Amino acid sequence: MELTTVWFVAIATLWTGYFVLEGFDFGVGMLLRVLGRTEPERRAIVTTIGPVWDGNEVWLIVAGGATFAAFPEWYATLFSGFYLPLFAILVGLIVRGVALEYRGKRDEPEWRARMDAMIVVGSVLPALLWGVAFGNIVRGVPLDADHEYVGGFGTLLNPFALLGGLTFVAVFVTHGAIFLALRTTDDLRRRANRLASRASVVIAVLAAGFLVWAQHLRGDLASMILAGAAMVALSGGLVANELAREGWAFVGTTLAIGLAVVSLFVALFPDVMPSTLDPGSTLTIVDAASTPYTLKAMTIITAIVLPLVLLYQGWSYWVFRKRVTVAPVSVSAS
Amino acid sequence: MDGLDLARWQFAITTVYHFFFVPVTISLVAITAGLQTAWYRTGKEKYLRLTKFYGKLFLINIAMGVVTGLVQEFQFGMNWSDYSRFVGDVFGAPLALEGLLAFFLESTFIGLWIFGWDRLPKLVHLGCIWMVVLGTQLSAYFILAANSWMQNPVGFRYNAARGRAELTDLWAVLTNKVVLVTFPHTIFAAFMVGGAFVAGVALWHLVRRPGTDGDVFRSALKIGASVVLVAGVGVAISGDLQGKVMTEVQPMKMAAAEALYETEKPASFSVFTVGTLDGSKEIFSIKLPYLLSFLATGRFDGEVQGINSLQEAYEQLYGPGSYKPNIPLTYWTFRLMIGVGMASAAVALWLLWTTRRGRAPARWLVWLAAPLPLLPLVANTFGWIFTETGRQPWLVFGLLPTASGVSPGTTSGEVITSLVGFTALYGVLAVVEMRLMLRAIWSGLPEADVGVGRPRTGGSDDDESGADDEPDPLSFAY
């Protein structure tokens, strides 16, 4: 395989890992005030992602850094072109991260409520806008001959991209609810299960609509098969949720998100930023790539380090595998 | 103000702000790990209590470092897309490696450390915080290697057809002589901040709460002040080496640091100058003869090149234009960095002396509790403002002017939105963070058994993992 292809796969993998992992963090964040009726419940909800959310977010940072290193033109065009959505995503992630770490540091209900609001907003906003951003990448955006984005902010708010945003939010809510059902006990667990169940039809319709439209815009046989597999996995997950088989339900949504993101990247390949103006202005992996030397050096280092990363991240999930129970009283965290 | 100025202000604000949290994180995590190691080895309760106390302050701080670091990863692409295109092949690699090697390590093991009290075996839990220490050090190294390449580009060739710099030797980038001196300088400078923070907090408690945990805070004061002194010596030695490397690779920065307009041999070090810094008029100045020659070249009679002759040489090399940085800014930030840093070391020395052999610190000393950590912190800030503005007008020295790196397609409105947005958000968060920090400091040392299992009702019958025996991990951090 060409090194440029290897790095396209690597970056697709990083984004896939990011959306699978941060997807349930976002979902849990969005459901914090919906499923958590009392402070001890909300505290249990936050605790399910407490040890892992930061590590999950690093998948995004590494995706950004790897894109910078392997495809500088892609990094430059994407983040300068999608300036305002990215700014809003960063604000959301900052607000959410601070709130997750600070909510337990004070006991007043007003403080907790404010932090909860920040967690909810900081989960909805990035989920929505990543959907919009990926919708636009797949759909294509106006790029000039220098691969410079020449559209405005409004250009990014087209129907397909907005559907992408809604789909991301909806799927992450389900993914998060199923994660909570898997990670909590008793009443909270049952309520999370029921919420995922009630939302299932809406989620399935949105996801199917988005994937079919994406295939219509830009797809080949491989991406179509992957999108179909994603829908099968999603349906399987939702059925497993109905049967209260939480582990299988979570495997289902995990596979669904993973396969759907991979399907989008397969549809994109070998382009990275299709142009809606002159097809010649489309940014491809070849235009965007770094030199073979850089790609080779990065490949060697990644091949050594990534397995270690997966090993210790996996170990941390193993350490915190026990379900989180709702503490009887809200006790001081200080 | 045009788009370039806006983009520069935006970068300056977000980066300087981010770096308020970085030195504290780097040093406080290591000091916390040291305290926990002391507890592990001696079993003394006071080390456990100090670990939890300073560990909590460390966590309040690093949360801000993590979230503001997100902006750092993406703003090159947002505001500096042509820079990203030009350098990505070289500069991207250390950035990606920082994420892969350092950030995964830091974030995962911090989670394990926070929630792993009482759940992991003691030694494994101790290992977790040391992994975080390793992560912060790796992170510092890679990002400084990236910055050092902007100061002194090595290990690359210029591809005229693609209009970009291309990596030819990654090892050369990672062993750039600038990073080899900048890394120890930055790390030692960070430890001055962390040590001063530990000492300042302990000093406040010793004076304001003389009856409460006096012995424990006395230990903390000595540990903190000693760290400041040792790190201060390290900063001085590494800074001296750095000055010599800088004179070699960026002579204009050294000349600007001294506002040295004409080449001098031997050159004297200006401690203080009143007058116009363009050299036309000098009202009053204190100069130490031979010192600049020694700082810059290692010899007391060495020649130090002046701004004017360098300007002429650069015009011949790079064509017409000004190659001078903002002289008053570089001159004063260089002096303030050194002066303020030395002042904090002096305060630390005084504290050690005045509390020797069981003496209680004088009450008025409490007024030094806050300035003590703030002095080395602003010295860090001055150092970075000096080294970054001293590189101007270059973004990558000798290769890419700053004006050529800015995003061509980004509008002023967009940059203003993010400039105002980030500044306002950061301002609010600074208040929130400071309040939490002060509360945590004010509430004092936790009891030694905090974090050990609290009674709870968990373990309903459908709880497959049996939470009855599961201690509450939240009591420590969440």
TrEMBL record, chain A:
Phylogenetic placement of the source organism: Bacteria, Bacillati, Actinomycetota, Actinomycetes, Propionibacteriales
Localization per record: Cell membrane
Transmembrane stretches, start-end: 6-32, 74-95, 116-137, 157-183, 195-215, 221-240, 247-269, 293-312
Protein family membership: Belongs to the cytochrome ubiquinol oxidase subunit 2 family.
Residues in the signal sequence: none
Lineage: superkingdom: Bacteria
Keyword Glycoprotein: no
Name of this chain's protein: Cytochrome bd-I ubiquinol oxidase subunit 2 apoprotein
Record key words, sorted: Cell membrane, Electron transport, Heme, Iron, Membrane, Metal-binding, Transmembrane, Transmembrane helix, Transport
Metal-binding found in the keyword field: yes
Protein's membrane topology: Multi-pass membrane protein
TrEMBL record, chain B:
Acidic residues: bias regions: 460-472
Transmembrane segments: 20-41, 53-71, 91-116, 123-144, 187-207, 219-237, 332-353, 365-386, 415-432
Residue ranges of the region described as Disordered: 452-478
Compartments reported by the entry: Cell membrane
Topological category with respect to the lipid bilayer: Multi-pass membrane protein
Keyword Transport: yes
InterPro entries: Cyt-d_ubiquinol_oxidase_su_1
Keywords: Cell membrane, Electron transport, Heme, Iron, Membrane, Metal-binding, Transmembrane, Transmembrane helix, Transport
Top-level taxon of origin: Bacteria
UniProt keyword Ribosomal protein, yes or no: no
Family: Belongs to the cytochrome ubiquinol oxidase subunit 1 family.
The protein's name in its UniProt record: Cytochrome d ubiquinol oxidase subunit I
Source organism of this protein record: Kribbella pratensis
